[in-house]
Amino acid sequence: MIAYIKGKIAHRTPTYLFVETQGIGYQVFISLHTYERLKDAKECVLFTRMVIKSENQSVSAFLLYGFYEESEKELFEKLLSVSGVGASTAIMMLSSFKTQEIIQAILSKDIGLIKSIKGIGPKSAERIILELKDKLDKLPQFDKEIGVIDNTFKEEALTALISLGFNKTTCVKVINNILTVDNTVSTVEELIKRSLKQL
Length: 199
What we know:
CATH 2.40.50.140; Helicase, Ruva Protein, domain 3
């Protein structure tokens, strides 16, 4: 499985990108939310999910979906687990509302918001809420306070802390908190040391 892709944006549309890495161009399907975050970017790092498309019980294509935020990818995967919800419907949901808005709608059983999304009727909205409300409620990675780590030295610090056995969600919060309070931190070593004191 391809966990993420990093490279140059060779072409972009509101629904997909061509990401070039090591001389290979990958077509990556995206939500409008991800498109907005990358609208002026020349390069990107996207969390990805491969989806197998089938026709007449045979594999017809392998489609790669990419997300600017890991929480959006994880919600996409949860939506795919719902009976009757395919990749097109899931990406439409993520293009219509922010990740946290969809999560909140599911947790609060807001059928009205879910069924307002194109292609989702009342029964589908009820099924999505029924099948996901307990699953989403137990996922700490959907905490709305989690920020996006979009800087190389922050990414390196996060990777190091996770390899030491610390929880990723907690590490993200600690790192973001440190850099919000003190923006003079500029090295991986210093950030790791400061983080370890709070973990």
